[in-house]
Amino acid sequence: MKKKSIFGRELSLLGFIIFLSVLVGIRNPEFLTIKNLLDIFNDTAILLICAIGMLLVIVTGGIDLSIGATLGLSGMVCALTVRDYPQLPIVIIILIGIGVGLCVGTINGILVAKCKVLPIMATLGMMNICRALIYFVSGGKWVNTYELTSAFINFSSSTFCGISVLILSAVIIYIVFGFFINYNKVGRKIYAVGSNDSAAKVSGIKVDNIIFLVYALLGTVGGLAGMLWTSRYAFASFETGSGFEMSVIAACVLGGVSVTGGSGKISGVLLGALLIGIINTALPMIQVSSFVKDTIEGCIILIAIVANTFMMRWTRQKALRQREI
């Protein structure tokens, strides 16, 4: 029954995405052009990469408010490295970006899992630390397009078998994490911790290690996303990734991930990220200001949380009634 309700919710979300796309396309025909759709997919790829990592954190009952700052710090470090050492191969830059994200995720994991700091407090503090580090390493200055190498700038838009590196990266991470979540023993333990951490401990699961792992994984993909972001937009600044955490969380919540932990599917996160990407592209095309866009995004999160809460309550009540029968 639970699988049917989840499938129905994802089907409804897909239907809404199609409906919204057609509606915006009627208002502005340029929205449904191949070029614009490819731009949406490329922008959504970065969001999806981070949202997949956030899925694991939220499933355990946690949250990470530092993902936007992690992306920004990784992007700035990559940009500065490219500027100062233009001869370095792109693989090294990718590893540097991932390494920065992994460091941030590791610290978050230690604070939450080992030091027992509340996730919202630990990651809020880390968000501010990352922003301070961005300002410190950059001296408060931008890294502009002309300071970056053409190889770095063109990396995200380069293609392999006709697929852009951005989309290909998101697809690979989706497949790897999908296998990890659905077919790996550790993936099942993540859901067990989120459902009932006390029962998970009794069953022999090392809860602290699982919690540490999910924050480290989110930091890792956030670091990769930061490198890809900077390559795509060809600049880095103090504000890079600011507010991005809201879009990441919104993608998860819209995709049916329960903020109380224990449930959520990667396929739902894909649809949630796609909807956020469409909204971010569609609203400016119909002359909606960024302030209104942020308000709409906040309302979407609240509505999705309320709807998800009622859905879970209805599912539990229906299950109880069936047991009584």
Automatic annotation (TrEMBL):
Instruction: Check the record and name the Pfam families matching this protein.
Output: BPD_transp_2 (PF02653)
> Chief subcellular site?
membrane
Task: Write out the transmembrane intervals.
Answer: 12-28, 40-58, 88-111, 118-137, 157-181, 210-230, 242-262, 269-289, 295-314
Topology in membrane = Multi-pass membrane protein
Q: Which GO terms describe its cellular component?
A: plasma membrane
InterPro entries in UniProt: ABC_transp_permease
Coiled-coil stretches are none
A single Gene Ontology MF term assigned here is: transmembrane transporter activity
Where in or outside the cell is it found? Cell membrane
List the keywords (alphabetical): Cell membrane, Membrane, Transmembrane, Transmembrane helix
- Please report the name of this protein according to its UniProt entry: Ribose transport system permease protein RbsC
Which source organism does the UniProt entry give? Robinsoniella peoriensis
Question: Source gene?
Answer: rbsC_19
